[in-house]
Each structure stands twice: as structure tokens, then as C-alpha cells.
Amino acid sequence: MDPTPSTAADSTAMESSRDRTPLGALGVAERTQADATPVEERDVVFDCQQVGVRYSGTRALRDVDLKIHSNAVTALIGPSGCGKSTFLRCLNRMNDLIPGAAVDGQIFYHGEELYQPQVDAIEVRKRIGMVFQKPNPFPKSIYDNIAFGPRVLGMKKDLDERIEQTLRRAALWDEVKDRLKEGALGLSGGQQQRLCIARALAVEPDVILMDEPCSALDPISTSAIEDLMLSLTNDYTVVIVTHNMQQAARVADMTAFFSVDQGETGTRCGVLIEVDRTERIFTNPAHERTEAYVTGRFG
Amino acid sequence: MREGLQEELDELCGGIQEEGRIAAQAVSEATRALVDWSVDAFEATVAAEEQVHHHYQLTEQRVESILARQAPVASDLRLVLAVLHMNRSVERAAHNAARVAHLATPPPRRALVEEAVITDALRAMGERGAEMIRTAMDAFERRDANANRLLATLDELVDRENAKIADTILAIDITDPELRQWASRMLFAARWLERVGDHAVNVAERVTYMVTGETSGQTNAGA
Amino acid sequence: MNAASRIAADHAGRAVNRQLAGRRNRSLAATIFLLYLLLSTAIGLIALAVLLVTILQDGLPYLDVMLFENAPSANPDRAGARPAIIASVLVAVVLLATALPIAIGTAVYLEEFAPRDSRIIRLIELNIQNLAAVPSIIFGILGLAFLVRGLDLGPVLLAGALILGLQMLPTVIIAAREALRAVPDTVRQGGMALGATRWQVVWREVLPAAIPGIATGSILGMSRAIGETAPLLMVGAATFVSFNPGLLTQYTVLPILIYQWIKLPQDAFQGLAAAAIIVLLVILVTMNGFAIWLRNRYERKW
């Protein structure tokens, strides 16, 4: 994986797109942050305070206090039903699309409250891209898949160049450059997922959210995606949800462990148990429940 | 949950306990061989060292297998890492015991006033060393994070005996070659017995790490 | 092996033997059932074959250029089906221009935009389901009351086509909704996650992906409408039209012409009717075939 440094042309394009959007005025993180800076001291991209989610009145997640730092991979782990995916979808307001879902608490994205009425969810999703569990390329050509975002957002200038840049960034260019016009569904699962990552990168986001991005992939494709995640942290902030603890251990700088609290009435609600540097979570977690989960002695 | 891993960890712990028990025995026997000039004790030491070495290899294989196949994390990982280090220390202690046993030599024909002082000190060091290994292994069994302090105190005593031996030997006016040989052998023996104490301290330090996840940084490096 | 375990093994062996024996019995039942299924299928196929053969026997001698060139006539030697064929094509065009966009629009709205838990929406959905089950003659009565008399259109082709379109709506809506539903949600989410609006996602991704399914459903709906007779009789399709029909003229369509010819006493008209049936069959089979081809060609596995 080559961590292609963004060229001058590239970064000016980013500036202009940033200026176009109302959120562009926000102090977006410096794209290159010295690797030497400890994760906890890097800029805070998301500052979540007392975040909770209810689905049609039933509480699915409560009281999440979590800071997500820039240019790092933050992994959300935990058992099924612990609300980690739900939480991830709060970060780019994808929960808005689910009827009956209500988010409470506050999420500050570079200091700006995401759930203020005047914030446009569409704008949020432009800056905070998302990759899903199952590769979901559009049923059209590889080229058109990447072009979708820029076209929709009116970034039509130098489209070919942008597509090449993006595919290179997602370490997919060499594999697909001769068949850009072929259907994306003809790619292998791992390639499709990298295409989806490229598609998200094409609209120049600041953050990439990944919801179990490798759960449908074989080990080789998985490690290709993991390499990609690591190289992406040069320019982006990455948040992944994963069922695979080893994956979190391999790629994440910070790991947040979510679990399920059983209410007295049998209701189950997700909670954040602890968040810490990944090596600490996997060598010496502070909380017993984390210990029980990561050592596989949960339940 | 994870019964397979738990079984392997139990086996690993059982193995290192046995290894520690034999190593302590080796130190005791070596001391007896040294100060009582007992051939039985010498042979017992050599046999014990071989057994310890066998256990050492077994433990290493188990650690390797657990790391490769079970990918242990958190307390499991710390246990495995602790055992990996303890294994080395225990094996070194037994090896030192064997060296001590090999240094056994008849006392000089010319009666020496200091002889009793030296042999008493060596005996005390040996017994204490064996006891320290047992204490450290017991701390491992009980997951006692504070045993490292006790062991450090005991090690002080061992070091003091060692210093006493060295002072005594260096104070002897050595002209007799036979005496010189004996004295230098005892000096080395004291040195190896002193190291046994250090290894026991290392074991206790690893136990502390295993339980708390913190290293005190006070471990005695080297062997 | 001790005695107890040997006995246990023996028991297990016998149990297996019993099971295998049981399976033999069941396979006999399965054979009988299979024969029954084959017979049922055969009856349908034989009936269809007899029908086809009879029609081909009767109609082929009459299937000539005249059938396409001439207008109906009292003289079977000069009678043709030209106005009816033209009217059928016109009906298809009207359906394509009116019912299809409305049906697809409805389907897109219901599937992609309508609030899921709204009572009105559920009522509309229920209505569409019911409409699909309404007998076609009822649509005819509706057309007569509202289009022919109410709007005072008179018994013209447009009125007939519109009523056929109305009848076709529920079928196409349901088919189009199925096609839209078959587009996985992940495609919508993928688009939304890129900062596209719902409208952009539907227009650029969901609708194109659903087009094969929608087309298949629409063609099947249209072919049914073109073969329809009953509602047209109600809205006053004429039986004898010798001129080329327009949208606002009187008209007849193939099925009605066939119906008309069959009622006539002369044997030659029976033959002509059979020939017209062949024409109608070819049109319908072609349309359905095209629909099947579309489905197979663009069928996607998500």
C-alpha cells in the first residue's frame, strides 16, 4: 500500500469543496499529523457527550461519552446488540433514515453540534463517509461507481483524474485500470469493498466510518483492507465497527468496548464500558467486563 | 467459555509449577553436594537439572502453541508472557544449581578457621535460594502481586551472605595452592547461589506483572 | 468392547435397518406423488396443444396479407382485420403513454418516499391490492359511467384505452414495487452515505437498477390489457369498423373482432377468426417472450 501524499492540485480541490459547504468554515483537522503525536493528544474529531439512541421509544443505547481523535483508527467492539453499529450511524446521521430512531445527547464534530436543527444531514454525510458490512457497489460500471458521489455533489471538474486518484488511494487502480467501464459487480468481494472505500473517498470526506467492513471477506482481502485502513489514517480519521477482536487489535489505535446492560424488565440496552489505547484494552483492560469479553469468557 | 484455551493454560501453569518445584530441589541438593560433599546430592542435582531442562522445553512449546493458536489477550496474554519469562528464570536457577554442584570439592586438608563460616554461609544461601524459588512459585499459584517485595527483602539477605563469603575469602592469606583452589571454588559457588536468589526475584516480578499489568522495572536483567 | 456397548451397537444397527426399510416405503409414495404431478401437468399441456393445433389447422389457410390489409367485410373473401390491428397498436401506445408513467410513479412514491406507518398510505396499498382483484367487467362499467357518459367522450378508442390502462394500473404498480423492493437497501444507504439526497439516489441508482423488473411487469400487464375484451364491450367498442381508427373515433380491437367473426354463420369467418387469433397469439407471445428475455438478461443476484 502506498500512502500517496496528496498533491498540490489535490489539496486545492479539497479546499474549494470545503469552502462550498456551510460546514466548511469549521476548523477541519490538519491532514498530516505527525505520527509521533500520541493518539489522545491529536485533534478531537468527534466529542460525544451522553449520546443515546431510541428506536420507537425503546432505548438501544445510552450515555456514551467518547472522544474520537483525528488521523487514527478507532475501533468499536462488543457483543451483538451492544449498539456499536447504532452508535456508528449516529456519527454521520444515518440513523435519520430509520423511521422511529431518535438520538439524544450531543455529538460535536470539530466543535459543531451535529444534531442541531440547522445542520443538514446531507452535508454531514458528505464529510463523514461510510462503508458498509456487505460490499454495496452500485450495479453499474467501476467508473460510474466512483463518479456517483462527485456527480451528485457537483464536483464534475477533472472527473477522470479524480477517479484515478481515488482508485490509487484505495489501492485498487492497478487491478481495475483496464476495465473501468466494466460492471462493478464483476469484481471480487474484496475488490468491491475497496471500490466502496474509493467511492467514499471520491467526495473528499474527513472521516470514514466502516461498519464491519471485512465480515464478508476472505483473509487475504481482509488484510488488504486493513493495510488500506492504516494508510488512510495519514489523511483521514477512521472509525470501524468490528466483530473480529483480532482485527481491532491489529488496526486500531484506540478501542472502545460496548456491552449490553440487561434492565430489570428484561430490556437490553447498549452501553460504552471503556475506551482506551488498543494495546491497553488487549493487555490490561481497566474493566472486568472488557477483560471477560476480549479473553472470550463473556457470558 | 474457551475451554480449550483454559485447559492449555492450566497445563502450562501445572508445568511451570512442577519445573519450579524441581528447580528448588536442585538448589537444595546442590547446596548439600557443595557443603557436605555428598555424591548422592551431586547426582540428584544433575538429574534435577535435566528434568528442569526438559520441563523448560515443554513449557516453551506450550507457550508457542498457545500464542500461535489461541491468540490470548488481556489476563491470558499476561499469564502466558509471565510464564515465558518465569520459565527462563527457573531454568537458569536450576542451571546455576548444577554449576554449584560441579564446584563441590573436598575441603582443604589444612584446617581453616574460616571454613565453618564459609560453609555455614553457603548453606544458608542455598537453603534461602531454594525457599525463595518455592515462595515465588507459591506467589504465582496464589496470583500474589505483592510477593515481589518479600522476595526482594529475602534477596537482600542472600546478597549479604554472599558479601560475607567474599569478604571472608578475600581476607584469608592464601599461599597454599590447594587452599586457594578451594577458596576460589567457594567464591564462585557463592556467586551462583546469589544468582539463584535473583532469578526467584525475577519470577515474583513476573507474577506482579501478570496480576497488575505493570512492570516495576526492578527486574534483574541477565542470567 | 464390553457387553453393554456391544448390545448398544447392535440396537443402533437394527434402528438403522428399520430406518432404511422405512425409506423404501416412502420412496413408493414419492413415486406415486410424482406421477400425479406429471399427470396434472400433462392435462394442461395437452389441452393447450389441442387448442393450438385446432387453431393452426383452422386459421393458417386464412393467414395471408389480406388479413392485414383489408377491413372487415360481409364477404369473407375480402374481409381483413386491419382496423382492429391498428386499434390494438394504438391502445398499446396509449397505455404506454398514460398508465405506465402513472403506475411507475405510484410505485416509486409508495416504495421510496411514502411514510411507512401512515394510515392513509396503508389504505391506498390495500386499495391497490383489491383493485387488482376486481373483475374486468366492473372496470368496463366504470368506464361507461365516467368516461363515455360522464366526460361525454363517447364510445371512442381513447376511452377504451384509458379504461384498460386503469385496469392495468394495479398489476403494474405491484410489479414495479416488487422490482424496487428487490433493489437492496444497501444500495440506497450507499448512496445516502455519500451525501446524495433521497431523490438523487432513487433517480440515479434505484430506478435504473429496478428497470428490468419494472419493464417485465409492465409488458405482462400490457399484454393482458391487449388481450382483454369484456371492459371494451361495456365502453362500446364497435363490432364493425371498416375505416382506420384514430384516438377519438369508433374502433374495434382484435379480441372483439375475433368474438364478432366467431358469431357469424359462415365457415370462412370461423377460419378468419382462427387466423386473427394466431395474429393475437403471436403478438402476445412476442411481448411475453420479450419480458422473459428482459428478466433473464438483466436479472441480478445481490
Description of the molecule:
The complex is a heterotrimer of chains A (299), B (223) and C (302). Chain A is α/β, with parallel strands linked by helices. Chain A has a single domain, classed as Rossmann fold. Helices cover 34% and strands 24% of the residues of chain A. Chain A is built from eleven helices and ten strands. A ten-stranded mixed β-sheet of chain A has the order 5-4-1-2-10-9-3-8-7-6, sandwiched between helices. Chain A is globular and about 60 Å long. The termini of chain A are far apart. The N terminus of chain A is likely disordered. With 223 residues, chain B is mainly alpha-helical. Chain B has one domain: Phosphate transport system protein phou homolog 2, domain 2 (Methane Monooxygenase Hydroxylase, Chain G, domain 1, Up-down Bundle), CATH 1.20.58.220. Chain B is built from six helices and no strands. Chain C folds into two domains: 59 residues; 234 residues, MetI-like (MetI-like fold, Orthogonal Bundle). Chain C starts with a helix and ends with a helix. The mean pLDDT of chain C is 84. The chains are: A alpha/beta (299), B mainly alpha (223), C mainly alpha (302).
At a glance:
Chain A has 299 residues and is of the alpha/beta class.
Strand content of chain A: 15-25%
Regarding quaternary structure, what we see is heterotrimer
CATH top level class name of chain B: Mainly Alpha
Q: Portion of residues in helices of chain B?
A: over 70%
Per CATH, what is the topology of chain A?
Rossmann fold
